[in-house]
């Protein structure tokens, strides 16, 4: 991007007035004194320089006023930065069970809820990794994209902060994962991609959704992390059912989700966390795994340059005012008779 | 007394101008002329045989002549001369004299016209700027109304245009007989033009009158920005007036005037400075002393 194309104006037609900036060449701000001939006035480089400066100041004043009126600005720019990080989609469970503690109780002062812990730890995670591009999505009854893939960590933080609001009833992991896979954009294709699924339970994934997920996984290879916030007494990921007990996705959804995710053929890790400390350990591990060179774009917002234009115009006009105030004229009127005689 | 008979301009006085050398011409006047005449200032004796004028036999000189010849007195002939004003009407001459009641140039020309006609001489005017001005040519005349006419018309005409080309061409209309020519100009012209002007007037007795204005010579502001516009070319120049520049400006004005005087002296006599207003006494002094 060249320097010129970075500049823009709001009202281009105002720039049609720009030829007015040539006016100072034709018209002087000072009142002219007649002089019988040029030879009368001595040559003086300093004066010529001041004359040129006054013309320049006049042209500058008019031009910068016009630019100011036209709304001169620096366009929004994005700078490609290189950092070490990843493109991460945080897929967060918003089901109502997240609002209870790890001990499956209502949160009190001593123990925070799972969602609050997740919020706190994910906020830390995001702020530790400034080079990441992060997207946030949530799912419960249906998946909700919250923030698309972005460099704006403010937005990510705000999105994460919103996850401990009271959630809904169900847990639709499959469609949530589909949404997460679809949130990677083209610009993330060269660096590492990861989906961090944060949930405290699982559900049966529809067969059609399973097919779609396999399809998506084949198309866009991502690393998949499942941070399972295991509530006390709930079934774990690795718990094989006791013999005689039914082993189906309906009875052991977590175990079968794990098996399904493994079968996707992606780099996959599952973390089972029983407490906030374990969650934090898991996140640190993800942190270490996802450290590959990544390119990300930092966006510098549009900057309005018209105050600078007006400031410049004010400066030029102040110069002209100073010139005007120090203006003198050759006094063509004749001095009183006595004075004239004394001089002649 | 009717309005038409009232003199225009300030009161005028006689001016003691003289023609350097002897005048030529037959019309009687007040100036010493070539040749001898019948009365006036004594010139020399001649023999009665040479000039058979019995009325002017000088008895005493005849008796004292050892050779016994009869001597007749001869007197200086006095003739009238033509007095011309050659006036530069280029744009630069407009400076400081726009319709003023005491327009120095009009005052000066009217005073010369008045003095010339009072002194039994003829007055003529040739004024032109870059182009010849037929309406500003007055042939040598003794008309009584000429001073007023000159004053009225010159006061209304400030001058315009660039250069003195027309004036150089109009000068050819001067009579070939030696006349007294007042060249009234600010002489802000290139040296070639000045040489051309004075060189063309070689046969006449030239009195340069330098029109100056104290506004551009001594009454300069001490400090400030001045933007000047050349009255002839219209070019603008900006100057930051300050102590050093003011001194240089004044020094340049003095140097210019000194250089002009050098040229004037090589063509006859130094110039008269007409600064801001016409001072009849100063002009009379100048004419009497020859500017020295």
From TrEMBL, chain A:
The chain crosses the membrane at residues 50-72, 305-323. It comes from the Bacteria. Gene3D superfamilies: von Willebrand factor, type A domain. The keyword Transmembrane helix applies. Keywords: Membrane, Transmembrane, Transmembrane helix. Coiled coil: none annotated. SUPFAM superfamilies: vWA-like. This is VWFA domain-containing protein. It comes from Hansschlegelia plantiphila.
From TrEMBL, chain B:
Signal peptide: none annotated. SUPFAM superfamilies: vWA-like (SSF53300). InterPro entries: DUF58 (IPR002881), vWFA_dom_sf (IPR036465). Residues 70-258 form the DUF58 domain. This is DUF58 domain-containing protein.
